[in-house]
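Mods, move this if it's the wrong board.
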Amino acid sequence: MATLYYDKDADLALLDDKTIAVIGYGSQGHAHALNARDNGQRVVIGLHQGSRSKAKAEADGLPVCNVAEASAQADIIMMLIPDTRQGDVYREHIAPNLKDGAMLMFAHGFNIHFKEIVPPASVDVVMVAPKAPGHRVREVFTEGAGTPGLIAIEQDATGDALALGLAYAKAIGCTRAGVIKTTFKEETETDLFGEQVVLCGGVTALIRASFETLVKAGYQPEIAYFECLHELKLIVDLLYEGGLSYMWYSVSNTAEHGGYVIGDQFEEAVKEEMAGVLQRIQSGDFARKWIDENRQGRPNFNARRQREHDLLIETVGADLRQMMPFLDAKTIKQQD
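Not the wrong board. Structure tokens:
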């Protein structure tokens, strides 16, 4: 059984004399900073020179300085910049200013687990990871509730790492919903696996393959778009609200029967590949290649991103979404 913590298990008073430096002010950064500030904590934002987020943080009433200055005054440092930037930022700006007894925090275990960041033995190393996008973390908090989260202790230099980590989780609202104890290893490997085989990689591969199969067979791209992408939200909402059983209960018997029969075929076909994906994550092979890709300037990643942007399903979808003003359709300008 998982170990869960709630508000009653966390003491905000442990943060009374602490300064929290939130490094980054993006999706998660703004939510952590504002929630902690609204819960009475002293928060400073650390940003790189010329950051476009500076004006936003200042408009939200938060003090802003560079990362080195923020780290020097902080008792708690929460790293909320992209994984691929954390190692360099840590080595250049944070490590030289890290106090003994400070708590170095993360919302994802990637850099600690794969040793891109190796903190000194004199600091606590803790993860508090809300299981929701930052805008949702903030929205739910302002409504008086919270989003579930994870907590992990990689290094307990002070003997108080868990208590302080739970206090931080309470400050941003996670203990209102419940916080599950995990490890940096478990969170990192399961997070990467879920992204790759289901949430980002698996789902989009099924959408592309099914759309292209119908179009190749002579069906209209617009019809293929509706059947293979648009209606997916209906199914995801059912899964989100009630799990697999509620989804099966809610669709037609024909859809349920077809889903069982073909779903079983797909499941058997992909399990071996999934095992290979997990092995590559566990061995560090995926992390090493991704780190190397970034150090080379992301040539393969950027080319693949552009190909995705240019797919027929994207062109067709952009036109069809204009027919549905209730969607609040989004567009992006493709860039590196």
